[in-house]
Fold these 4 entries.
Entry 1:
Amino acid sequence: MSQDQTSADSMSKSEKTRKRLRAGAMAAFSELGFHGASTRHIATAAGMSPAAVYVHYKSKEELLYRISKFGHEAILAVVRDGAASSDDPAEQLRAYAFALAKYHAQEHVSARVVNYELGALEPEHHAEIIALRQELDRVVDAILQRGLDRGVFHTANLRMTSVTIVGACIDIARWYRDGGSWTPDDVGRFYADSALRIAGATP
Amino acid sequence: MSQDQTSADSMSKSEKTRKRLRAGAMAAFSELGFHGASTRHIATAAGMSPAAVYVHYKSKEELLYRISKFGHEAILAVVRDGAASSDDPAEQLRAYAFALAKYHAQEHVSARVVNYELGALEPEHHAEIIALRQELDRVVDAILQRGLDRGVFHTANLRMTSVTIVGACIDIARWYRDGGSWTPDDVGRFYADSALRIAGATP
């Protein structure tokens, strides 16, 4: 085995461990909240020793930061893909809301942590995550502005329209549970229609 | 002073203390989460000693239960008043959503606790609060059903329409902060319009 291979293997093993720790932290934060979950809870959920946590992450806050960063980057990627799927603002808004709603149903555990524990981040990390959220807002604001300019949307307040659409989608993570009668796709389609209605799209 | 008066005075003093403790618990739960807030945090927030907490509430969970019960009963009262303000389903839905949205802006601290810490309640208390939430759903479902029957609303899925409207209003507690540019009334009016749009009300 060459040195490169050894290095690649050990990196991949370390990344696997980090992933397991993030999953454990996500489960612990989701159940007990950031302040209620101890390093021991996280280690137990990940099937590891508390000491192992600190080998990979210097603090509980760093774990929350990494989870938040991955979560927000993933959401941003799916809504950007959605928005880029068409030139028509109505179709863009539909794709944006579908992606955002479906994500919050499918990833409801991590989405609860990511949306409700923001306040526990250290100032520098908080600012970085807020910047990602603002990017998410900019995407929908731009779609709405284009739709207003072309006369296909009708709303008196662009910003409040964004907040209502994005907020409704975020709230899905609060109530959605696996195994119910609505699939993430069902939820995505309904919220996409609702987004167009909220924006006052001409039917 | 008659014995009745003494008893009334001491009841009122005890009720004041309990109210102060609930406010302290609300602040502590909102900041640190139910599992992250200790009796000491609650007592400090209320300006009392930790021992005083147990004189009035037998556990942290009982405090959460009382806060949740008061909060849900208050919400139920305002939306019922709203729904009773007219015979017209469109006006009823507008009043319902206005009341629910305004409440979640005005009472955003307690509303966050009430909506996001439900899972920490003991089974019996949890069932009681869920019953109050179902009552809240029944009010909006009945309005939507009447509107569909009269042909003033248009939606393929009544239950998902309710969930979308109620969920959007609940989410306000996540993002609303005092001192911003939107008053609780501004938010109430916008979400009331959005509720009619989501329900497919004939303009």
Note: Chain B has a mean pLDDT of 92.
Entry 2:
Amino acid sequence: LENDDIESFRHELLRLHQYNQMKWFEQLQNPSLRKNVYKALSAREFAAIFQKLKLKDQVDKVQELEDTYQADVFSAMSTNRLADLFNRLPEHVIHQSIDQMDAEQARTVMQLMKHEEGTAGALMTTEFVSLNKDLTIEQAIEKLRAFADLAETIYYVYVENDQHQLVGVVSLRHLLAGESTKTLEEIMKEEVIQVVQDKDQEDIAKLTKDYDLIAIPVVDDDRHLLGIIMVDEIMDVVEEEATEDLGEFAASRGALGIEISALLAAKKRAPWIMGLLLIGMVTAQIISFFENTLQEVVMLSAFIPLVMGAAGNTGTQTLAVIVRSISNDEVKKGVWKIILRELSAGFMIGICSAAVLLIVIPIFYNGNWPLAFIVGGSVFLALGFATFIGCVIPIIINKLNIDQAVASGPFITTLNDMVSIVIYFLIATSFLQYLQ
Amino acid sequence: LENDDIESFRHELLRLHQYNQMKWFEQLQNPSLRKNVYKALSAREFAAIFQKLKLKDQVDKVQELEDTYQADVFSAMSTNRLADLFNRLPEHVIHQSIDQMDAEQARTVMQLMKHEEGTAGALMTTEFVSLNKDLTIEQAIEKLRAFADLAETIYYVYVENDQHQLVGVVSLRHLLAGESTKTLEEIMKEEVIQVVQDKDQEDIAKLTKDYDLIAIPVVDDDRHLLGIIMVDEIMDVVEEEATEDLGEFAASRGALGIEISALLAAKKRAPWIMGLLLIGMVTAQIISFFENTLQEVVMLSAFIPLVMGAAGNTGTQTLAVIVRSISNDEVKKGVWKIILRELSAGFMIGICSAAVLLIVIPIFYNGNWPLAFIVGGSVFLALGFATFIGCVIPIIINKLNIDQAVASGPFITTLNDMVSIVIYFLIATSFLQYLQ
């Protein structure tokens, strides 16, 4: 595929979609084959492939590039990809590259590197099109033609006043449909959905979804346009946030990535497990407190997992509903309605569960009806409390703006464990005489 | 805001972004105010607001519209929104509307209504631009100007051959940058990322993300273009799929929506809880089996929740990693590497947890070292098994293409419960003599 005619190879490769070019390049194991690729492609063509690689692979491959070729590749990359890469490279490589770069681009990249991860500034790229409000449509289209190759998108034209402040937006669609002598100011939409540079990425994703945007502009406090965030970046954010939600749920915040080492994964997860173990010691204490009851009827301990499990699972169901409605902002529409619904659902599930136990326990335990009533009653009550806890605690935590981790699955479950154990043993102790 | 001058109200409203127009309309409680809106806006202007409303609200408001106005609103809606709405309306309303609609549009909408939810066909809309390959760039741009108002996007032009088959795509960006006398065939990309009509939405989302697309074309088996799916639809899909993942995790599949009633939520969730209760009965049987051990040292039951909890939480962590890497397709890159990493992480977490218990238990239980070793050892072993179960079972289930629900959080946790209880009591029974 590689050794023969460079021209036909180039032609074949460049016909592919950039993602497929990247995929093809990614699987090249042999460094000398990769060298041939660098030779065959212009820096500009290779940059398009290179910036789609995973950051880790970019860091690996960067050192294979010759100095001038490398500098040209960097120049052709989009500024935010370059900033991401520089954040992973050693100081001296960056310095050397920056010396060879266009001063303007170097400054932009250095600026971008300063933004905190998860903010608008860290997601944006600076290849946008902004034009003065007094240009006519005809002039604007002329400019766009020139930008078509360089800008990240030309489908939105951001309109600036003479102080370079963002005052409007025109979609290319409207530009094409408009009369060519009108000015941008006449046809622009003045209401521009925009974010400031330190805006959180979750909020940005929500705006993009609500307003069906392809790109969202980022401005500083004086409404000067700093960059744009493209919808494909935002898709990645949505994916990332979903992973985060799941991580909170599973006591694995920041440890769901497949690429981190076993040691790092253990480091991030072990504190959760150990913390939960310590809370488990409290549960053990609670059970020890009822030692006398247990001494009388040892059989009672057989149902500890069942009561706890039912409460835990129900609490988790409710928690999932609430976590989801908090991140969808649905919760704002009516907290009480949600709480009421959850409690009613919990009540109904509790009745069904108690009914099942009243049938099954006498069958398995020789018609031990008192046991069935104690376990069934406990499950019913425990489910009620579990629903309440799984529902109200995350809402309160969200209102108070406390770290969401406290509302994470395992903590709620552990809390439910304790409550359900107390309920179970209180009921069992009260009706102990019927069991013997 | 409403009663006075219609013209200035119209002007104010239409200046807003369509999402904000919708938000404003949504909060109008008074039907007579809404009537005024219908009077003030053309059917076309109102359709833009109307089709952004939630389906439930659309169904409510539809009956407020006068017959001819309603027909005009329907005509101005995008075909897939209309199909979604029709799927919720009673037969006679649909029939009446279809009689008044353009025959072509009616046929299209009826077609769309047939597609199964969650497939490409159900997501696509038919307002796309496709042009013959022999048109010149100049002619194409001329056509686009005419379509600009009607099409969902004009940023991709799909290129057809004389048999109306999809043979290429040209972005508007390339169209603008090209020489006006070239034909579409000369400048088009032949590699069109496309899906067939029954493609699953999760796959479509992945393609869109990988290839950074704004829209993806849907074709039939003969490569005739049927419609396009816009990126904003796909953002909703990603959101939906994340909710689904969480639902599986929390034993609440299809029951996370906030809009469903308590009864429906209970109906969907109760079977999970009751099923898990029955499995819990097995755990109870296992514990009953060790009744003699418990009779000797009742204290042992105090640590049942702790051992189970630690195994459950660790299993959930691993499960979350695997579920995530399956839905990212990362798992294909190296199953064994992932399994090995998880087992190593589980081993390390197990050692840390056992160490904690060896310190804490003697403190709380008057230097009861045998108890500490029994519980610590059980936790160490149970964590190892839990990691293995949380990791291997979902991978096997994924390979065998069994329903993912079996790999859901609660089932894995319940399985881990049983295994950890067995481990705990086997160890406790073996070393019982040291406890007394």
Note: The first helix of chain B runs from residue 6 to 15.
Entry 3:
Amino acid sequence: MQNIDWEKFLIPYENAVEELKVKFKSIRNELIKMGEYSPIEFVTGRVKKISSILEKSKRLEVDMENIDKEIEDIAGIRIMCQFVEDIYTVVDYISERDGKDLKVVGVKDYITNYKDSGYRSYHVIIEYPIQTAFGNKNILAEIQIRTLAMNFWATIEHSLKYKYKRQIPDPIQLRLKNAADAAFQLDQEMSQIRHEIRQAQKMFEIRSST
Amino acid sequence: MQNIDWEKFLIPYENAVEELKVKFKSIRNELIKMGEYSPIEFVTGRVKKISSILEKSKRLEVDMENIDKEIEDIAGIRIMCQFVEDIYTVVDYISERDGKDLKVVGVKDYITNYKDSGYRSYHVIIEYPIQTAFGNKNILAEIQIRTLAMNFWATIEHSLKYKYKRQIPDPIQLRLKNAADAAFQLDQEMSQIRHEIRQAQKMFEIRSST
Amino acid sequence: MQNIDWEKFLIPYENAVEELKVKFKSIRNELIKMGEYSPIEFVTGRVKKISSILEKSKRLEVDMENIDKEIEDIAGIRIMCQFVEDIYTVVDYISERDGKDLKVVGVKDYITNYKDSGYRSYHVIIEYPIQTAFGNKNILAEIQIRTLAMNFWATIEHSLKYKYKRQIPDPIQLRLKNAADAAFQLDQEMSQIRHEIRQAQKMFEIRSST
Amino acid sequence: MQNIDWEKFLIPYENAVEELKVKFKSIRNELIKMGEYSPIEFVTGRVKKISSILEKSKRLEVDMENIDKEIEDIAGIRIMCQFVEDIYTVVDYISERDGKDLKVVGVKDYITNYKDSGYRSYHVIIEYPIQTAFGNKNILAEIQIRTLAMNFWATIEHSLKYKYKRQIPDPIQLRLKNAADAAFQLDQEMSQIRHEIRQAQKMFEIRSST
């Protein structure tokens, strides 16, 4: 794998992203069609750029011949939720599929344990079987599950990291931390609204049944 | 127009939404292709549901025969931005097209003057010419321009309004106001980051040129 | 299953159609990306309309509780090819996946044995596992593989059958048969072109190597 | 225009293709929604590859600074019809829009006057106004209107022309002519079916009304 044929190497990852996007979008469509609440607001996906794969393998000291085993986010799926609570519902959906169309190989809960930078998200690493015109392959994929506020913040942080080559200057780092706090605050207020709505519904049910 | 053939009535609005979505998405694609910053993050569109048109025309006491002239948001386009400042860049893009492929007939700046509920957004009302298989028509459309945080908040408010038939209970109304404050706070922190980045760039340019 | 909840019943079929479309389109994209010839020209899919499922179950005397086992084309995928020879390449692709992401349960070769009406196509019936938000299910799906000319003819025949409630008048039936012959002729001429091209290429290779 | 910035040059053409695809697809959707027959079966579009623009400008001896005025098919839209008669209905739709959202600057009827090679299609050259983030521009676009059989044949001829660098060997040229005849035959049989159906409908209407 010294000289990687990138076009060919990335094909199963591209297929996996397309298939997984369809699968998670289907969950949303099903629930809405059945008149039920969907914990999934929208789904995006991407294959990591070659330059980013090379940069990451260098940073993590991964040999070229092991990148498919050690770089877990070459295929990436992102699932956006309205409420923090929804994230765990989505994680449950994925767990139920473990051993069926996908295999869960690891999770990282950066919501309970958020990063110093302020980054919050729930990551599930899966193994996914792909059939291509050139044969079959099990690939790794990373599913990131976040609220819209977490996603908003992470998008900005990502472009700043890229801009400053991972060396974000201190004053900007500080501002970014403040923004993370504001995003966290927003998520908490939203959870409170969700809680109030449930309370209001329960009170209504109690009154109705007496 | 006593008995409206809704299928037929809504066709030019559906076409307008499709065409306008393509046009605003193209601006984003162009800028990214040219390696420039896009003030447009993503674009969505929808035609108002018949039940919502009827409810609004009743609430605003609009005669059925005038709904195409007096209900301005039957065709709706929503443009999401990362930073508050980007909203005004998008408004400028629309103004430059005034008299070309669209005509601006009104603006509502709910960002400088946000609603009591906490609602913030910039609305541009346009007139847009549509050619259908059944003839031509100038229709009205509403373009809403918002940050992601504004959009997030407005989506929640909209579903609560719908749930409580526009009578949101006071405790939930209060929570919603707190969430609006958190969303506003988030936008301000983001603008600050944007400002810091510019400062950092200017400092860099000054140093480089000396 | 006396009173079928159709919305819910059809959800796994809709998911299957979406997933299978993505999977077969990926084969085309892969091959083109690798600079190789794609036997797949384009892919479409659809879930059978409820009225058509009812009509077919009545015609074939299938009990409502057995429609998921006995009606094989509720989920339908159609793969279009340029040349008749390509059809068999696509069939090989499907066979190679047998026991992996799908299971082949039957084939019908209406190309070697075309129907009296003039209908030609290759059908593969598969079993496909689907994970929904409401649980898992193995469903049946029919993959139709055809040339563009076969598809063109079949589309017309389908709309005539529908129009005349399966009783196409004799003079139109005759015209349809003539059109089937013309479509067959077109496919044969195309295969000849394909053959000539290969001959030309071989002659060129022989000349080049001497 | 000695050194063309191709990325920038092609942007308005890409926008035009996207907008025109949406507009013609809308006609189909409208008619189907209204329960009427659509003469449009499907619509595709593409921007000419840079290498093909260069090859064509060289072959036609067009100066680089005039390619936007003299090469008419940099933006190309293709509309596919079931019956030859439908082509003229689509041409009428385009003529009705002349002076509204587009301007017709020329037509080429290769159906009445087919090319020696066997090529048949109806071409309409239009001028179309585009608003980009970098300003406005009137561009030329070519709309090709064809039956499915014409399109099928033309696709093959195009790939052979490309393969043999416009020098298709005689035996293949002959086969191609035979295929064109078969495609023409197929279209004629289809038109006959269309005629028979109309006759059958008229007879039915006469019987019903007596």
Note: The longest strand of chain B covers residues 135-147.
Entry 4:
Amino acid sequence: MANLGPGRPRSEQRPRRGHTPRAEILDAAGELFTTNGYANTSTRAVADAVGIRQASLYHHFAAKDDILDALLAETIAAPFELAERLRADADPAPTRLYALAWFDVRQLCAARWNLGALYLLPELRTERFVAFRLRRDELRGHYETLAEAVIEGAGAAGIPGAEVLPFRLVETVISIRSDEGRAPTYAEQTIPDAALRMLGWAGDLEEARSDAALLLERLAAD
Amino acid sequence: MANLGPGRPRSEQRPRRGHTPRAEILDAAGELFTTNGYANTSTRAVADAVGIRQASLYHHFAAKDDILDALLAETIAAPFELAERLRADADPAPTRLYALAWFDVRQLCAARWNLGALYLLPELRTERFVAFRLRRDELRGHYETLAEAVIEGAGAAGIPGAEVLPFRLVETVISIRSDEGRAPTYAEQTIPDAALRMLGWAGDLEEARSDAALLLERLAAD
């Protein structure tokens, strides 16, 4: 196995985040996949990093790709749930798109490992990950539906095809985080602001932001 | 080695793009790295795909990471050269940023393999690739300088930090191409248009596009 990052000492206690062995396995795998690479990481290395035996790991995950699938699912679960709830919401489209982009950027920044960096793995294009790909396509679809509504409401001559861009702009957090070595917290404002502007929306961005904050609070309280 | 894509038959003739053995090696490696993965590809597999012996490959590249480095350099060489020339150009900043983004999107779409997908490899964060990373940072710096000038000229209350986004937006071509399985040629217009709009530039986009086309023609003729 190529050792690409600084070595992490194996401690006798469990140094892992998570209250369950499953969560600890995911945390260790998230670190190894993003720092040493997916292909370079064996299930044995994951078990070692958690401080459990490989047989115990197999009790939770039958194979390495099951671990990857679970990690990938985590990256979209919360924004997906929010997007589904926003569909049924009566707030204006700019407020809803702002809320979704803000929430999604925040969770991509807050995640302990930059798991979105795994989206470009060639392994993801295999049959094994078709369910994940479809789910992420659905999330992208939610973004596009909201973006189309923003463009329609903006009235101005829009940019043809711009509805695909807010989802993509949100995911640039992954590249920024990879290049800068830390989560770009400034992006929580910059990216939702820019997403509305590039759809031709000329309204007040501070208002959009405070409306989105209220909307997110309301949904969190429901 | 995991076989992740459909197998490509080894032919007796050289089926590779390129007029030199070096170019053929790069083409084969570009395919294997993007379809099977970098870690999953041996120099032996690259040599086999070209139809040469491994010893002959080593005559051109001493190690696998030298092949990766050469491929990565290719992805930024042309936009980098253009960006350097645009610095000295007297055209307005929106025209120059439009030209750079358009040219860069076009080359990312036209490249035979989606090599930008390799930017997120953990291997790139090692010492070996520091020269490439610095070079790409310089390109990003050129984008940001142009974007700052566009924001300043736009006069409107800008989005704080938006100058980092045009470079990132251009590179979303890589994710789109990976997800859609083909180059998003529509992005050649959508992305430069959106880059100007998110910087608060409210001018005529068709004019920006035709000015940028003239600028690119002029520079190509020089």
Note: Chain A touches chain B through 47 residues (CB under 8 Å).
